């Protein structure tokens, strides 16, 4: 059986700087930052008291959840993921299956890192107090890793594979590649893919304890996340969700769906926490192999990549990431692709980062712009030494391009790279 082409026909996003797709497109194009000060973190004596948290109001929630559902749900990750996933499905022009039989051709892979942490806390308090019966009927849904994919599967009536994945910061990008593989092999016609992450001190506290978050921008939150900057002092934690509908090209063409971009291919691997790799640092050889394999699997040459949307978290690893890209691509200082990081505007949304950043990457391809790297007007000298500063745009560049490579590198020395191409001709 011939391998299928895979395209993107719908997207949804809930990010710290916007909670719907049109606003998100406007936010990244104009460099709008969604990082704010959180008094709760200050009251709990966090060193880093700023974070990226989506502004999801009660009015927004009422558009996606029934009053009964809202009484039982207490999981920010499920809220974010349901909104992003539902919006992506609608954006693709797909209907909710009300038939007795499910849609056997459609599936879901929606990943997470931590889901239902506030519900866990509530459950522990009730159980310890001997009040287990007060847990409610949704406690399992909200605290199992596949809770969101199961919830969306029921709402949308999907009858193909409905599952989750979890691989730290690579989760969302990995989910895209898992859905791509399923469609490419002919096992599904369309897959809703994405990832989400809860917000709050119980999610972010461990990172604060590791002292890898910035402590010196509590009074200036929009300046705190500084990928590739000489004054970067750590990543700002964030949360949210991103979602994409992947579809077999022929199916999309047959139903007249709009097409945002094509997924050419990608790769996932691990550095094995060897050769300089560890739980928190990547094996550089593993990263370079992942990039090269993604390019090879996409059927292109390294020189065809116009833009890189990097992982680039505003730590000491930023320069190393660019060295790995330069080595893998075999590029010179002046012909390196344009490179940007969304995290200056959103912070690091952890397991939601990859999917939110994939949405941002595809919007750039579709709408012909390369968003700027805010807070990077003092490019780190180690980066200036290896690539031309003009390849790290500070302001948005309004220009079309053809191919973008998006990377995510996560805790546990795990890597994922996906390659997107601008809209194919119908």
3D architecture notes:
With 426 residues, the chain is of the alpha/beta class. The protein has a single domain (1-426), classed as Peroxisomal Thiolase, Chain A, domain 1 (3-Layer(aba) Sandwich), CATH 3.40.47.10. Helix content is 35%, strand content 17%. A ten-stranded mixed β-sheet has the order 5-4-6-7-1-8-12-11-9-10, sandwiched between helices. Strand 11 and strand 12 form a beta hairpin. Helix 5 packs parallel to helix 8 (147-156), helix 9 (171-184) packs across helix 15 and helix 12 packs across helix 13. The longest helix has 16 residues, at 76-91. The radius of gyration is 20 Å and the shape is globular. Keywords: Acyltransferase, Cytoplasm, Transferase. It catalyses: (3Z)-decenoyl-[ACP] + malonyl-[ACP] + H(+) = 3-oxo-(5Z)-dodecenoyl-[ACP] + holo-[ACP] + CO2; a fatty acyl-[ACP] + malonyl-[ACP] + H(+) = a 3-oxoacyl-[ACP] + holo-[ACP] + CO2. GO terms for molecular function: 3-oxoacyl-[acyl-carrier-protein] synthase activity. Belongs to the thiolase-like superfamily. Beta-ketoacyl-ACP synthases family. This is 3-oxoacyl-[acyl-carrier-protein] synthase 1.
């Amino acid at each position: 059986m011939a391998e299928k082409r895979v395209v993107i026909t719908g997207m949804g996003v809930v990010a710290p700087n916007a909670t719907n797709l049109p606003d998100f497109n406007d936010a990244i194009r104009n460099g709008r930052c969604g990082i704010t000060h959180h008094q709760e973190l200050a009251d709990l004596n966090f060193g880093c008291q700023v974070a990226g948290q989506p502004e999801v109001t009660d009015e927004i929630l009422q558009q996606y959840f029934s009053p009964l559902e809202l009484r039982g749900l207490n999981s920010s990750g499920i809220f974010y993921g349901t909104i992003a996933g539902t919006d992506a499905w609608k954006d693709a022009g797909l209907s909710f299956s009300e038939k007795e039989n499910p849609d056997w051709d459609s599936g879901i892979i929606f990943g997470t890192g931590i889901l239902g942490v506030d519900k866990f806390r509530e459950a522990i308090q009730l159980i310890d107090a001997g009040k287990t019966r007060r847990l409610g009927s949704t406690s399992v849904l909200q605290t199992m890793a596949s809770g969101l994919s199961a919830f969306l599967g029921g709402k949308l009536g999907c009858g193909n594979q409905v599952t989750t994945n979890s691989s730290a910061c690579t989760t969302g990008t990995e989910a895209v590649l898992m859905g791509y593989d399923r469609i490419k092999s002919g096992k599904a016609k369309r897959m809703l893919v994405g990832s989400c992450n809860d917000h709050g001190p119980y999610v972010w506290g461990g990172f604060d304890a590791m002292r890898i978050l910035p402590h010196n921008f509590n009074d200036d939150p929009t300046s705190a996340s500084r990928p590739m900057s000489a004054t970067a002092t750590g990543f700002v934690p964030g949360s949210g969700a991103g979602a994409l509908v992947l579809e077999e090209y022929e199916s999309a063409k047959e139903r007249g769906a709009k097409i945002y971009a094509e997924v050419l291919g990608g790769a996932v691997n691990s550095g094995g926490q060897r050769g300089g790799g560890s739980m928190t640092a990547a094996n550089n050889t593993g990263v370079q192999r992942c990039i090269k394999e993604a390019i090879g699997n996409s059927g292109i040459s390294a020189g065809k990549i116009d833009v890189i949307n990097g992982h680039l978290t505003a730590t000491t690893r930023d320069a190393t990431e660019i060295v790995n890209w330069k080595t893998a691509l075999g590029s010179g200082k002046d012909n390196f692709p344009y490179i940007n990081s969304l995290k200056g505007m959103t912070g690091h949304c952890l397991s939601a980062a990859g999917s939110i950043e994939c949405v941002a990457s595809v919007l750039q391809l579709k709408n012909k712009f390369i968003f700027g790297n805010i807070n990077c007007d003092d490019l780190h000298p180690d980066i200036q030494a290896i690539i031309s500063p003009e390849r790290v745009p500070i302001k948005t560049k309004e220009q079309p391009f053809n191919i973008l490579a998006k990377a995510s590198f996560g805790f546990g020395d795990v890597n994922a790279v996906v390659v997107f191409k601008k809209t194919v001709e119908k």
